Amino acid sequence: MRLSSRLPQGFEPNALSATLAHLRAEGRPVLDLTGSNPTRCGFDYPEEEIRAALSQPSVLAYDPDSRGARSAREAIARHHGQGLRADELQLTASTSEGYGLLFKLLGDPGDEVLVPSPSYPLFDWLARLEGLSARTVPSYFHERWHLDLGALEAAASPRTRALVVVNPNNPTGHFLSISEWHSLTELCARRGLALLVDEVFADYALEPPADRLASALLEAEPPCPVFLLSGLSKVAALPQLKLGWIAVRGPGAAAHLEALAFLADQYLSVSAPVQTAAPRLLELAPGIRQQIRHRLQANLASLDQALTAHPRLSRLPVEGGWSVLLRRPAVDADEVCALRLLNEAGVLVHPGSFFDLPGDRHLVLSLLTGEGSFREGLARILALL
Ligand SMILES: Cc1ncc(COP(=O)(O)O)c(C=O)c1O
Question: Is the CB–ligand 1 distance for residue 239 below 6 Å?
């Protein structure tokens, strides 16, 4: 039987994943410098408190609200500040599900969304699975990353429905500047586009520029529809609990929220336990984030220390987020380089090309990696490069 053309043609793993599976099957140890799952990175979670939050008596009651429990939305509004109200929020089971709802809300099959690249590769599939396509528009690096606003405007077609930005971006760590923000909202207003802003990493500013956009909730009444996405997976480093949210502002916000609630009502996918626990989990989150910030800073310091002996290699600024870009001479393709590191040094890194980083010059390392593994992996990478 023919399956939907929205699906990939095949499900074969790429060369890097296939090699990794092969090495692991052979029992060869691999130092993984790509880990983005915080529950496996040795952080000290307040386990008792998390369990208590998830086992309150009310988790046994089912009292669905298609927008999500008000107490959870109020806690999320407090977390964001910026005058955000519970009424401006829609709960989802994850940020990824939030994209699915927004693409259903905004597009018809064949429509497209614009995504500045490099960026998070999942957008491509999230859009395709809703019958849309994600068109990438390269950003450029000059001392820091910049959106190419002219190219974004030129790429907007009558079928473009939205622009998707990640603030700070994954994996470049680029925070939008305030001036980029105003240009974006103005462009979207002029061209009738919605602006989707993924702020899952907004609490992890490492080397933030002074003019960074700290929150897409900067304005109570932005000139275009603004949808901010975030969730517990990064805010509280609890991806397994599956809670995300969308904050809605700008022209048409009330109608957009009503339609989102209708969409969410078809699935009611957010579990009662996580909604009940959300206020307490958000109280516990700063302690977890603090540990993560220490880890990110320690690994960045190790990298800087190690790079002093390797003038041909450098790293890009990490304005925010959980990744660092290691820049190397473009002597071979990024993927070839990553395969060589895996096969010859037993170290797993992401090739920059996975994220559309230009020019075969980048490897992406996760700063979430345990500090000992990070130093050891780095030493092996630097020895081989
Ligand atoms: C930029 C970005 N958005 C969204 C997600 C997914 O978040 P969630 O677990 O809430 O779906 C990730 C996960 O790494 C991410 O990097």
Answer: yes
Domain 15-44+285-384 in CATH 3.40.50.2000? The answer is no
Residue closest to 287 by CA, chosen among 243, 355, 237: 237
Q: What is the pLDDT of residues 176-209, one digit of tens each?
A: 999 999 999 999 999 999 999 999 999 999 999 9
231: Cβ below 6 Å to ligand 1? yes
Interval between CA 384 and ligand 1 midpoint (Å):
31
pTM exceeding the 0.90 threshold for the entire prediction: yes
Give the Å distances, CA to CA, from 40 to 35, 36, 45, 171: 8, 9, 11, 20
- Helices marked H in 93-164 — which ranges? 95-106, 122-128, 149-155
Res. 214 pLDDT band, cuts 50 70 90: very high
pLDDT, residue 194, reads 98
**Whether the CB of 244 sits within 6 Å of ligand 1:** yes
| Cα 336 to averaged position of ligand 1 atoms, centre (Å) | 27
Residue 199 in contact with ligand 1 by CB distance below 6 A: no
Q: How far apart are CA 254 and CA 66, in angstroms?
A: 15
* CATH node for 56-284: 3.40.640.10
- Domain boundaries in the chain? 15-44+285-384, 56-284
Classified as helix, coil or strand, 211 is coil
